[in-house]
Amino acid sequence: MPHPPIIVPNIGKGEELKLYQTSLACYDIAQEIATKEPETIIIVTPHGPMFSDAISISDGEDISGDFRRFQCFDIKVDVKLDMEFNEVLLKLSQDEQVPVVSVDRELLRAYGRPFELDHGTLVPLYFVNKYYQNYKLVHITYAPLSDRMLYKFGMLLQQVAQNLNRKSILIASGDLSHKLSTSGPYAYSPYGEQFDRQFLAKLSSSQPLDIFELDCEMIEEAAECGLRSTKILMGALDGKEIKGEVLAYQSPFGVGYGVVKFNEVGVGTKALKYIGRREQGMTEVLPKGSNPYVRLARKCLEDYFTQTKTMIAKEELPEIMVAHRHGVFVSLKKDGQLRGCIGTIFPTTDCVASEIIRNAIAAATEDPRFIPVRFEELKQIQISVDVLMTPTSASIEELDPKRYGVIVSKGMRKGVLLPNLEGVESVDDQLAIACQKAGINPDGDFDIEKFEVIRYKEGER
């Protein structure tokens, strides 16, 4: 279920009518929940107290929340927490080595945060409470963990409900892309529409677990907040054959809002062993079998974290790495997700090898989008190195997103997009994304340059 506060009439003040289909779908879901009379409602939200390395579970006798931050002061939700469910879930998670943390008033006070329901929980409960209130709540905030860990946590939710014989409903709260229009909360990206379309198509197909194979860069650029909630939901449905039905999808404010219902239609496959195969491949670091470009990037990171100066004799490296100067991009991914990327269009050091060392360390420690990489993460990180050829001026007709990267510039603003990226199928897409990165109007005038790259990945010679 989505969670736009504007869908609540007291907040939308007429604007909620633009989400009429979404609202009807949410009411339909709420009415169906009421007919099932669950003892426990589990909500997985992106907007509660989030930790980078552990899923948080709100713990206590009760919890409440309201919409005052949205200038609505007459709606409040008070609900009892299912303490028994929480206790068993915390113990089972510990036994299964799934990182979770119990979050109570005292802990959040230490972080200067209130113990309350977030809007990712309040909006779904606004609809549910219209028809049904005789339940206890399990309030969960996901963490940016691996696909396998999120799925496994969902499996534990199923196991706890079965162990306690608890009649339960799970709501995966989340919105889709926030980059669907120039009037939305984020700068427009063509990746946004692609993500929403592919995500909903996979959920309503016979293979909903295909959401685990969505392109990582598309996910990163889409700026969504519902994928991880849904991955946990998939884990909670492990072993069941399910059919997803998209009840509504709208995006009048530049954000995608989707309502999807899942019905159990039979016995399915225990799928944990298939989840995270892409991630597992990324954690198998094969430095001796990799090319010297990524081997150098990994070695300099290991040396950086162990405070060892990278000492590599030039004769140990291919001549092309020490005799030539090129711009270099170093990309780090963890669990299939971007973890850092820093690059130079033009060379800033004496050779390609030095450029790799400089940009590898910068990607791990200076990318403003991420907290710095920790030494313990290195074994889980996959490194790629792009060596850029000299850019040349180009017209739109000369571009090819599969072969050429693109640089757009206007005044001091400059945006770069590497070539051959999944999801970038047209020149228009390529230019729109590059302009979005630079803050340039894609419909205005700007200069274009094209360049080729040689891409090196770990495990490739």
Automatic annotation (TrEMBL):
Q: What SUPFAM superfamilies does the annotation carry?
A: AMMECR1-like, LigB-like
GO molecular function terms attached to this record = ferrous iron binding; oxidoreductase activity, acting on single donors with incorporation of molecular oxygen, incorporation of two atoms of oxygen
Which Pfam families does the record match to this protein?
AMMECR1, LigB
AMMECR1 domain segment(s):
288-461
InterPro entries recorded for this chain?
AMMECR1, AMMECR1_dom_sf, AMMECR1_domain, AMMECR1_N, AmmeMemoSam_A, Xdiol_dOase_suB
Please report the name of this protein according to its UniProt entry.
AmmeMemoRadiSam system protein A
The organism encoding this protein is: Turicibacter bilis
